[in-house]
Amino acid sequence: MPGKNLLTDPSKVLILGAGNFGSCLADHLGDSQHEVYLWAREETVVKHFNQYHRNPNYLQDHHFSTNIKAVGPEMPGRDLINEMDVVLFAIPTQFLRDTLSRLDLHLNRENAPLLIFVNKGIEIGTHALTLEIIADTCGADIAKAATFISGPSFAKEIVKRQPTSVSVASFTESEAEKAALLFHQPHFRCYTGNDPIGIELSGALKNVYAIAAGAADGLGFENNTRASKSSFPYCSEVLT
After folding, report:
1. Which intervals hold domain Glycerol-3-phosphate dehydrogenase NAD-dependent N-terminal (predicted)?
2. CA 68: distance to chain centroid?
3. What's the Cα-to-Cα distance from 103 to each of 12, 120, 125, 198, 217, rounded to whole Å?
């Protein structure tokens, strides 16, 4: 990747996870003329996608960019990963540790691809954040350079090219800037920061507050109650 301008130069991008969000981001990057490889764990999805440029399980009505090639169901090998400028993880947090272990991403930071994570949540059992899972499986240097993208971004609206804004964060500022350049489009704005832990926690805890607000609404309470439950800082109190 050295010397490559991610805003103007086509990049090779591997996206792990052909769900709603992985598929819509693949389409976004393919539409930006990047060469995208979308890994799916089901052979039927791989074959269907490559033949029809449609995902049989998600966003079924959308015709995806022809710059996307589906790969799988075998895990990508080291040779393919070494060809990539970017590797993006769009798989559930509960499966991330196993996936990273199988990929064996103990890479030399001098020539490693840009690593982007868009998964949300906290690992069941360990209560580990994604950043901690990365450090456990790939080492502290990889975790320090990992980049996280989060924000109000529904897949069905992204594929419609509706205006969207996201936060991009990494402990390594240059990595966050690269990811922002990669995704930047007039309809897709990226705002960089250096607090990946904050992004991770916000992405996980927002669902707790949403449930609390929904429960208040279901009980017939109105704006005051919903606002107090959504803004209260302690989750244990929110759920009381």
Report:
1. 12-173
2. 17
3. 18, 20, 22, 26, 44
Residues 158-194 pLDDT 10s = 999 999 999 999 999 999 999 999 999 999 999 999 9
Q: What is the DSSP string of 86-125?
A: EEEE-S-GGGHHHHHHHHT----TTTPPEEEE---S--TT
167: nearest Cα among 134, 137, 141, 201? 201
Assign residue 99 the CATH number of its domain.
Answer: 3.40.50.720
Active site residues: 206
pLDDT of residue 236: 47
Structural domain for 105, as ranges: 12-194
d(CA 133, CA 123): 8
Q: For residues 50 and 139, state if they share a domain.
A: yes
Residue 14 is given by DSSP the state E
Closest by CA position to 173, among listed 195, 188, 151? 195
C-alpha count within 13 angstroms, C-beta hemisphere, residue 2: 4
Copy the structure tokens of residue 165. Answer: 């804004």
Predicted TM-score (pTM) of this structure: 0.88
**107: amino acid identity, one letter:** L
pLDDT in tens, 99-137: 998 886 656 556 789 999 999 889 999 999 999 999 999
Domain count, the chain: 2
Whether residue 220 is found in the same domain as residue 126: no
